[in-house]
Design a protein that fits this description.
The complex is a heterotetramer, with 2 copies of chain A (about 290 residues) and 2 copies of chain C (about 325 residues). Chain A is about 20% helix and about 30% strand. Chain A contains 8 helices and 16 strands. The C terminus of chain A is likely disordered. Chain C starts with 6 loop residues before the first strand and ends in a 31-residue tail after the last helix. The chains are: A alpha/beta (about 290), C alpha/beta (about 325). Chains in contact: A-B, A-C, A-D, B-C, B-D, C-D. Chains B and D meet through loops of B and loops of D. The structure holds flavin-adenine dinucleotide (FAD) (2 copies), flavin mononucleotide (2 copies) and FE2/S2 (inorganic) cluster (2 copies). The site of one FE2/S2 (inorganic) cluster (FES) has 12 residues of chain B, from loops.
Chain lengths: ~290, ~290, ~325, ~325
Amino acid sequence: MTDSPVQVPGTLLTLRRAGAYHTMTLVAPGVAERFRPGQFVALAVGGEQSSMLLRRCFFVREVKPDYGGTIEIVFSVRGKGTGWLAALRPRDIIDVAGPLGRPFPLPRDPVTCVLLGVAHASAALFPLAAVLRQRDCRPCFLLGGAGSDDVLGARGARRAGDSVAVATRDGSLGSAGQVEDLLPELIETAGADVVYACGPLDTLRTVTRIAAGYGIPAQVAVEEPMACGTGVCMACALPVVGDDGATHMVRTCVEGPVFRGERVRWDDVGTIPFDALGAPRALRLGERP
Amino acid sequence: MTDSPVQVPGTLLTLRRAGAYHTMTLVAPGVAERFRPGQFVALAVGGEQSSMLLRRCFFVREVKPDYGGTIEIVFSVRGKGTGWLAALRPRDIIDVAGPLGRPFPLPRDPVTCVLLGVAHASAALFPLAAVLRQRDCRPCFLLGGAGSDDVLGARGARRAGDSVAVATRDGSLGSAGQVEDLLPELIETAGADVVYACGPLDTLRTVTRIAAGYGIPAQVAVEEPMACGTGVCMACALPVVGDDGATHMVRTCVEGPVFRGERVRWDDVGTIPFDALGAPRALRLGERP
Amino acid sequence: MSVDLRARLGHAVLPNPIMTAAGCGGAGRELGRFFDVAKLGAFVTPSIAPEPRAGRPAPRLAETPSGVLNSTGLQGPGIDVFLTRDLPWLDQQGARAVVSIAGNSIEDYAEVAARLADAPGVTAVEINTACPNVGDRGLMFAAHPMAAAEVVRAVRAHTRRGVPVLAKLSADVTDVVGVAMACADAGADGLSMINTLHGMVVDTTTLRPRLAGVTGGLSGPAIRPVAVRCVYQVHAALPEVPIVGMGGVRTGLDALELVLAGASAVAVGTANIHDPSASVRILRELETALRERGIARLADAVGLAHKPAGTLIRRIDPNVGVGEPTEQETLQ
Amino acid sequence: MSVDLRARLGHAVLPNPIMTAAGCGGAGRELGRFFDVAKLGAFVTPSIAPEPRAGRPAPRLAETPSGVLNSTGLQGPGIDVFLTRDLPWLDQQGARAVVSIAGNSIEDYAEVAARLADAPGVTAVEINTACPNVGDRGLMFAAHPMAAAEVVRAVRAHTRRGVPVLAKLSADVTDVVGVAMACADAGADGLSMINTLHGMVVDTTTLRPRLAGVTGGLSGPAIRPVAVRCVYQVHAALPEVPIVGMGGVRTGLDALELVLAGASAVAVGTANIHDPSASVRILRELETALRERGIARLADAVGLAHKPAGTLIRRIDPNVGVGEPTEQETLQ
Ligand SMILES: Cc1cc2nc3c(=O)[nH]c(=O)nc-3n(C[C@H](O)[C@H](O)[C@H](O)COP(=O)(O)OP(=O)(O)OC[C@H]3O[C@@H](n4cnc5c(N)ncnc54)[C@H](O)[C@@H]3O)c2cc1C
Ligand SMILES: Cc1cc2nc3c(=O)[nH]c(=O)nc-3n(C[C@H](O)[C@H](O)[C@H](O)COP(=O)(O)OP(=O)(O)OC[C@H]3O[C@@H](n4cnc5c(N)ncnc54)[C@H](O)[C@@H]3O)c2cc1C
Ligand SMILES: Cc1cc2nc3c(=O)[nH]c(=O)nc-3n(C[C@H](O)[C@H](O)[C@H](O)COP(=O)(O)O)c2cc1C
Ligand SMILES: Cc1cc2nc3c(=O)[nH]c(=O)nc-3n(C[C@H](O)[C@H](O)[C@H](O)COP(=O)(O)O)c2cc1C
Ligand code: FES
Ligand code: FES
């Protein structure tokens, strides 16, 4: 296993549509064997003469050794790039860079883990659950979404997890409300030692707060808008407190996507906190710029 | 039959490769019924987010009433746009504008016609031959190309024409040399009354000269680089002598592609002749610009 | 909900904001074969010079990534033929003609403007200030605020009161706002922007410039961000001067983008080359886009990107269509 | 045929002409995971300021047709951390570092240049003149020939003789040749061009500017024709000044296009975002392209588009590969 990602022409093996999601399997030799849960891949979209220059990033839901290594991603159509992906057909070639980013840190001991995911971001939790199982950990799933269509992999979670609970905002599946509302009770009943979470910022912030309340760590995978996925463009800067206690604008794609929840300055996402390293002096000292 | 073109989403029916050529049949209702020989279609390439904004123009080799009207084009891959077309698959949608341009004028009487074509441009001659036949004219084909691979439709011409002769520059099919070298003899032996031609500028210039030598008209379809095909962009200007005796820079896509050969100022193609209407005064009067 | 699409450019009120861009829609007849040109807010003519012009030699156009480079040399019939052949045709169709004028000296512009003054069917005059000024070593008038202003003054002086004069600006300048201000001060009733960017393509096969004219003008979606920036900057500086926005508009959302940046009307250029029905499609798409966003009057959207978030309009997810506005989404 | 790819920039001779563009290749390690950065002619660093900079708030990048709009605010570690962490890493890899420097005053630039003077492993210094000048209402230095020249003089004075100083120019000016001349006169050993074009995107969903920084810099293939034009114009005016061409290079043929226009070396920016292996691929493709055209030395191709057709080189049909030169194709 190496830390370096690869860039390979991936061959589309299968593309299935289920509800709001498209599930795509790609033969991407080198990516599968290097992959660790929580990492993602960055795909080029639009073909050779593409007018779309930014990469599209996706969590990997599953890797298999078949055909030299396959990866499975799950996505919904959001804009032009995902629209293009959804129209591909078997044998089409897609440029894949990956696996990218820091994976979820794994517990050394056989502990109980909550795996909380919202919508497509839940994809990142399934390979994690598999690895946790191998280490005799107990993964307990909490899955959420806007409606039943939006909850990803509830069935698979029943197989992969010790327990599964679902919440939807419209109440069409599981309990009605935010999935994080279920977290305190689960932490208590299951005696959870760590929370892994993946989903919108608001969810991750709440998860972090709840976990902190119980004195357990929250490892969260953040989905900041990305453009390269490889660390060269500075699109994905997030205010995060470093080991030195100072706030740094770090790149989510290289230093994340997984962060320890309490390190992320959730309330300042989308800003440059005045006390961040290198923040505009005008803000720090009240000088004129 | 109307003079106005239409713009329709064409559905790819079949795409076959034969030698250097790709033959594409499109369901393009409205185009087929309006089509007259010598006209062309302008296709948009690259899909919805295309980075390629210019249209690609192709002669129509055949129209059929099937499925509300189909058109067949024949092309070779030259650059990005034709590369994209060659990779399409059945049921793909291509935006088609057509039929465009002035068709070949047809003789009133049942005369003998030479139909001379080089490479892909020969495509324009086949629907012409069919119409000429209906009018009891005798179409005699002369087909040329760089090599045997490059000669389009020799087999079809044997069915559609009274006679077929072929010349290739490398001598791999028919006689060796330029196809226009065969023209004088054919005009004489067949007693041709008119020459229709389609191919590179040099060929058309020679054809025009030869036909003039025999005192018969040459109707030539010119393949100037085009960008819109519809007359809005002025890309395809060609110096042509008008009815008024003056040279005008005319748009090949609207006032052509078919011209009476002797009207085209072949030696001045790619320039603005100094005596053209509206030529820079500096050139006309020796003034400084 | 019906959307009030009327667009005001000085004294002229157009039924809708979509027009062709000068030189990208032919004389009218060409696009008229695909749709009724009277459906557009206005039809902008190619730039008309006093005399006929044969233009530049071929090749005149080159394809670039999401753009087009052109050097057509403003081929055109000259004002005489324009007045007897092209303008009457537009008038007969019921189209509102915006006549673009070209020249290589102040006198040229003044002459064309004077000839247009008595012609029926001129809705507005647009000055193409990107023409080379023979009096200034061939530098375009648009390059200098003073030169641009002088043209505007000359044309304004020869144009009837009720007919708005639009100055069309180039983005190839260090300070587009300065040029805009000079033109407005000189009497321009509105500003059109942007003209093409100065560009070039070298052919890697012939190893020579691709266009016979060596350099040319870059247009199309590639330049849209530059157009949006110029419109935004000029609208911020001169909020009361109407702007005809153009540059890379291909869809109704692209048109909306320019409107939000500050354009009162939007012209469609290169898209016509790619898609002869582009301008009517864009009009349809723009109307839908406004309706989906709950914007009842086009005029309410003009310059909205300058206002604080949440002003007037609900936020929507265009992939989903219009939902009921939630609390967060309404007026803040 | 082996191709001599060496590229000369003043005193520096690079083994090949392909480099990264400032701010588009990370600090080196990022691309180093995909290929050996020492393979490139040079590695250009992000623009380094005297102090650390946190950059602009997100969103910082937007996709545009064949382009990217960015407003990262030159986030960077500052010269101290750069000298202790990033520069040594590049040096260890055997990469040739071109250090881009940023500042908001002449003193800022001079300070960074002075700090670099004693650092080992600096192959060249590139001045990012597109930074806002706090002394001139935030106008970029690149906007005025005199301001740009002043920066060049300051940096040249603090840089060792053997280390070339490159002035990186913006195309957002009325007269790029004038700025280029002023920089060359002030002692620039070479010119890099072009920086991003000033642009903007409005989000049609939020109805607000897409970037937190409101406007940003447009890059990518969309702007290549503008880059080619600038390189061509400046090479015509200053044929003896080496140019690092950049703007929208995505393939080896794109790089060749800039070389033909007059660039002695070529930097790859946005393409790295799209394809992390872009720069080594482009190097490979450029070498093949030169070989196919029978060009034995890169230096022979520099500025070839300025020469009469047929000079030196045979014409080829790139779809077909190299044929025997025919009569018409050889020296004329
Ligand atoms: C680490 C990571 C993992 C992700 N995993 C998944 C997944 O497993 N399944 C899934 O459906 N989606 C996932 N996303 C979101 C997905 O990347 C975006 O939905 C997608 O890029 C949108 O592309 P588009 O062309 O449809 O939209 P456009 O709006 O056209 O995209 C334009 C640009 O913005 C970026 N962008 C837009 N929305 C997002 C977003 N929400 N997050 C990041 N970048 C965005 C795109 O990458 C692209 O660069 C993930 C995002 C990140 C950062
Ligand atoms: C009236 C007419 C009829 C034609 N009929 C046929 C045909 O039946 N079969 C066929 O194979 N080819 C035909 N051509 C040529 C065909 O249009 C070009 O080969 C094709 O457009 C090249 O596109 P590309 O994307 O592969 O090349 P690119 O070089 O990427 O094209 C770039 C631009 O240049 C234009 N262009 C390039 N070469 C030509 C050319 N030779 N003629 C016109 N425009 C060109 C393209 O249309 C496009 O706008 C015809 C051309 C015209 C004008
Ligand atoms: C082929 C072509 C011809 C043009 N002719 C003119 C013209 O005659 N007068 C003028 O002011 N602008 C002319 N333009 C510029 C356009 O009107 C418009 O300002 C520019 O192309 C940007 O808009 P677009 O990206 O929608 O094309 C021309 C542009 C093109 C592509
Ligand atoms: C994300 C991003 C960051 C950039 N940062 C810098 C920078 O720090 N200094 C600089 O001089 N130019 C910077 N540029 C400009 C590029 O170096 C280059 O001049 C420009 O992008 C044009 O080249 P391209 O089209 O190949 O990207 C940046 C461009 C991008 C897209
Ligand atoms: S997405 Fe480019 S640096 Fe993270
Ligand atoms: S190709 Fe556009 S006018 Fe003829």
